[in-house]
Design brief:
Elements: H1 8-16, H2 22-36, E1 43-46, H3 48-59, E2 72-76, H4 103-110, E3 114-119, E4 131-132, E5 136-137, H5 153-160, E6 167-171, H6 177-183, E7 186-189, E8 213-218, H7 221-231, E9 257-260, H8 271-286, E10 290-292, H9 301-316, H10 322-333, H11 342-347, H12 354-377, E11 380-384, E12 403-406, E13 409-412, H13 418-424, E14 430-437, E15 443-449, H14 455-468
Parallel strand pairs: 2-3, 9-10, 9-11
Antiparallel strand pairs: 1-3, 4-5, 6-8, 7-8, 7-14, 11-15, 12-13, 14-15
Helix pairs in contact: 2-3, 5-6, 7-14, 9-12, 9-13
């Protein structure tokens, strides 16, 4: 049996039952990485010797019951792993070794995973692509002329190419969901705060970042569920609480209540993506699922999106160097009043007073409650993960300087943030699952959003779709 594209839970089963040893399985994925990764440059930090030592130790254990026992795993480069660098694409950090492993990685290892490397990201995790001056460019296994997405692009590419058994990424504006969509894999953005994500205190922010989350990426929905069980839970250093996430709201497809939002006026979404979402809705209706293509939360989507953008820009401003802030102030001084792109809206947050932010946060929580009311009527919302399939490589200038044309419509490059951002700022969980393929053979994903702490529901819907619609397909030639 070739284990290359098996789900992580199946890989753990092979080790648990003795069909493969942990070291034998690890060496299989290391061999694939050494042989195949030069084609896409996904696994950019390698820790093979320590991983082999850990796999040998696992093989010697009599108790192999841990849920991810022996699963060869890679993690996004931005996660701290003791002894390895965390650069986020900055060359001056490559020689600096981490002292404390991020809690998410420690939880994976406690569950039996064998971490053997880290996967590529864009500079500061801020692009729809994954390239940087430290590790170079990562390509999409489905078509090397295209990006696997960002910022967890290396994660999605490694999964799609069968180089790893499981991954974890992070998401503040689509960084798990967009790469999953681009590469035809599964990704889950948890409810905000569900998964603690602090690392080396010398480098990581103790306070964390508003909106930002860490979550699993995999080749099956069941792997997302298993990994979330491992990753989720309060910070043990600061809480005596235990986690009891609600069970899925339904027992089968016919019990589901599904809202479908395939397109939005004023937001560019290619016709293939819209058609694929509607085709899924048609299929669900044939299965006697309750489907509405008109149900919407009771607020203006554009206003809700713009509020998210302002919150997003203030959220990551803490990590922006002073020189960059000053340069943005100068740009703002000459910004026309009519300028209204995503980057223009975020630029206007420079120097925001805290009192202004508090007002934005108050409105955010009002609309978050509106989402909660919406999800009393509907179990999940199905919508695009992104406005188009995987983008061709594009490395000219800064992201905010780029323009992109989709089916004849020219828009600012970052205006594609609408579908990832619409729900993100309101702390909702969202799962991306394979949806289909473009005429050119590139994957498409569907975004499944649910209520606060409805993570098990969105993942369970992805599991139903995996059985009734489409699961992971390996790209040709891998």
């Amino acid at each position: 049996m070739d284990p290359s594209f098996l789900p992580a839970t199946a890989l753990a089963g092979l080790v648990r039952t003795g069909k493969l040893g942990a070291l034998e399985l690890l060496d299989h994925f290391i061999s694939r990485t050494e042989r195949l990764d030069p084609r896409i440059n996904a696994v950019v930090v390698r820790d093979f010797d320590r991983a082999r030592a850990r796999a040998r130790e696992l093989d010697s254990r009599p108790d192999k019951s841990a849920p991810l026992f022996g699963v060869p795993t890679t993690v996004k480069e931005s996660f701290d792993v003791a002894g390895l660098p965390t650069t986020r694409g900055h060359a001056d950090l490559k020689s600096r070794r981490i002292g404390v492993t991020t809690i998410t990685v420690r939880r994976l290892e406690a569950a039996g995973a064998v971490v053997f490397g880290k996967t590529n990201v864009p500079v500061d995790l801020a692009d729809w692509q994954s390239y940087n001056p430290v590790y170079g460019t990562t390509s999409n296994p489905w078509n090397a002329a295209h990006t696997p997405g960002g910022s967890s692009g290396g994660s999605a590419a490694a999964l799609a190419a069968g180089l790893t058994g499981l991954e974890i990424g992070s998401d503040i504006g689509g960084s798990i969901r967009v790469p999953a969509h681009f590469c035809g894999v599964y990704g889950h953005k948890p409810t905000f705060g569900l998964v603690p994500n602090y690392g080396d205190p010398a480098l990581s922010a103790a306070a964390g970042t508003d909106i930002a989350v860490a979550g699993p990426m995999a080749r099956s929905a069941s792997d997302l569920a298993a990994a979330l069980d491992v990753l989720a839970g309060p910070d043990p250093d600061e809480s005596g609480l235990t986690l009891n996430l609600p069970a899925p709201r339904f027992n089968g497809l016919r019990e589901l209540r599904v809202a479908v939002w395939a397109e939005e006026p004023g937001q560019t979404t290619d016709s293939g993506t819209v058609a694929a979402i509607h085709a899924l809705a048609d299929g669900l209706e044939r299965q006697r699922v309750t489907v509405s293509r008109a149900a919407r939360p009771p607020f203006d989507p554009k206003e809700a999106f713009h509020l998210y953008l302002r919150l997003l820009d203030t959220a990551w401003s803490i990590r922006v160097p002073d020189a960059v802030v000053e340069a943005r102030r100068k740009r703002l001084a000459s910004l026309p009043e009519t300028a209204n792109s995503v980057d223009d809206i975020m630029l206007r947050t420079v120097g925001m007073e805290h009192r202004t932010w508090l007002a934005l946060n108050e409105q955010r929580f009002k609309w978050r409650r509106a989402w909660t009311a919406f999800f009393r009527q509907w179990d999940v919302l199905l919508c695009p993960a992104f406005g188009t399939a995987a983008l061709p490589h594009r490395q000219d200038g800064e992201p905010w300087q780029r323009r992109i044309t989709i089916e004849g419509h020219e828009i600012a490059y970052d205006d594609l943030l609408f579908w990832p951002g619409l729900t993100c700022g309101y702390h909702l969980p969202a799962t991306v699952a394979p949806l289909g393929f473009t005429a050119a053979g590139l994957p498409l994903g569907v975004q499944i959003t649910g209520p606060i702490y409805g993570d098990r529901t969105t993942i369970a819907v992805a599991e139903l779709l995996e059985r009734a619609w489409l699961g992971f397909k390996a790209p040709d030639g891998w």
